[in-house]
Amino acid sequence: MKHINILVLMFSLIASTSLFAAATSFKVETKKSHLKWTGKKVTGKHFGKVSVKSGELKFEGNDLKGGEFLIDMTSITVDDLTNQEWNTKLVNHLKNDDFFSVDKHKEAKVTIKSVTLGKGVYNVTADLTIKGITKPVYFDADIQMKKDVVTAKANITINRTLWNVKYGSGKFFKDLGDKMIYDDVEIEVNLTAKK
Description:
This protein has helices spanning 2-22, 84-95; strands at 23-28, 34-41, 44-60, 63-72, 107-117, 122-130, 133-146, 149-159, 181-194. The protein has 195 residues and is of the alpha+beta class. Strands 1, 2, 3, 4, 5, 6, 7, 8 and 9 form a nine-stranded antiparallel β-sheet that branches. The radius of gyration is 21 Å and the shape is elongated.
């Protein structure tokens, strides 16, 4: 009986150690991570970057299982306008209530809810919170792990009006002509995280 109890204890310790070892968090390196945004309109497009404020990716072995990262909305840049006056005007416009209401909502957030492994990529379901509004998003993520460093890349397309960003949308305003801004916004995610 004593030997059985010892065996049970050993198996319990091994099982608990395996579970502990299986859950590994990689902290996002903010200086090496960013999001690139692209918005299109009838007459062209604009693009820029937004910084990642903090975050982590969770793995079991080499498999992505979850994670979350915060986006610093105060860091929005416009990278296609070289004229400083026009650049500043657009940045300020993106920060005001026509778009992202940055004074009231300084952060956006991505929270990974579920992950399945597809053909060479991960199929991710996540919650995206912008302006205090949370909606699901679906995207493929390319994850590369080398020793203690992980890089994650993904392309996400969102309909901005679902997060109450309606300025210049043909769905909500008539007779915009060449001032219409398309609803879809493309987001290119580039994350580097370290154990």
